[in-house]
Amino acid sequence: MWLILAIGSAIFAGITSILAKCGLRNVDSTVATAYRTAVAMLFAWIVVLIGGTFDQITSITPGTWAFLIASGLATGASWLCYFKALQIGDVNKVVPVDKSSTVLGILLAVILLNETLTIPGIAGVLLILVGTMMMIERKDVENQNGGGSGWFLFALGSAVFAAMTSILGKVGMEDVDSNLGTAVRTAVVLAMSWMMVFMTHKQDGIRGISRRDMAFIAFSGLATGLSWLFFFGALQTGPASIIIPIDKLSILVTVVFSYIVLGEGLSKKSALGLAGIVAGTLMLLI
């Protein structure tokens, strides 16, 4: 069951990136992140109420609360970095850097959660790393849409915080219903996102969002909510060192949709790197 949930997470995470890119064209990334989070949180709590697990909130231990909140803060930081990178860089360049969190997440799972890797698994991790590096071209890091290396630094920050999110979430979900835990985490992300909007004095940009952009942001929030519910549902019962790379296969969905919707293509080197990421992920399943 956890494998199916992980695959579902990857599909909706890939759709999220494209919808978010479309909604970020004329909207500040911090404001858009806050709105997306509001939609994701509403969806998450509706699922909790329908599932009848809301009353379990009183039985959450202080330790679990701490990990869920820390996971939510890491998610918020990852999102703010990721969508800022998407705003100033191409999807096909930003996403591979962000997905490098796969390797870091696997290493953290082995070190902190005592999970083990087989010989094919180790080879798979190396393939993912090499494939990711192949998709990041030096000229793109040095100059992307006139933004210098800014998009790359934001994407790298997103990867680090995303890896932390997975590990903290894995621990935090051990003694709580995954849907309820996801809803709690999303509330933390929402608070952090709106705090950043007001701290950076970007609340004035809220009124100027067009209906079209708001629609893309809202649908992106729904896709995010679904991706999270699947991802943390999988983490609750499955090994983090395998679920994390499966979830990151959302890059396949993103690349396909970015070509169809945004007209962004892949170089031969990047395509080879993508093939390496997919092959490495499949080897982790052996």
Describe this structure in words.
The chain has 13 helices and no strands. By secondary structure, it is mainly α. The protein has one domain (about 1-285). α2 (about 30-50) crosses α10 (about 210-235). The protein is globular. About 55% of the residues are buried.
Give the strand tally. Answer: 0
List the helices and strands in order.
Answer: HHHHHHHHHHHHH
Structural class assignment: mainly alpha
> Assembly type of the shown chains?
single chain
Proportion of residues in β-strands:
under 5%
User: For the report, how would you describe the main beta sheet?
Assistant: none
Using only C-alpha atoms, the radius of gyration works out to 18 Å
Q: Total number of helical segments?
A: 13
Percent of residues in helices comes to: over 70%
Kindly report how far apart the N and C termini lie.
17 Å
Low-confidence stretches: 139-147
Q: Taking all residues together, what is the mean pLDDT?
A: 83
Outline, from the CA principal axes? globular
List its traits.
286 residues; mainly alpha; 0% strand; globular
Topology of helices and strands:
Layout: H1 2-23, H2 29-51, H3 62-88, H4 91-98, H5 101-112, H6 119-135, H7 138-142, H8 150-172, H9 178-199, H10 211-237, H11 240-247, H12 250-261, H13 268-284
Helix pairs in contact: 1-10, 1-11, 1-12, 2-3, 2-9, 2-10, 3-8, 3-9, 4-8, 4-12, 5-8, 5-11, 6-13, 9-10
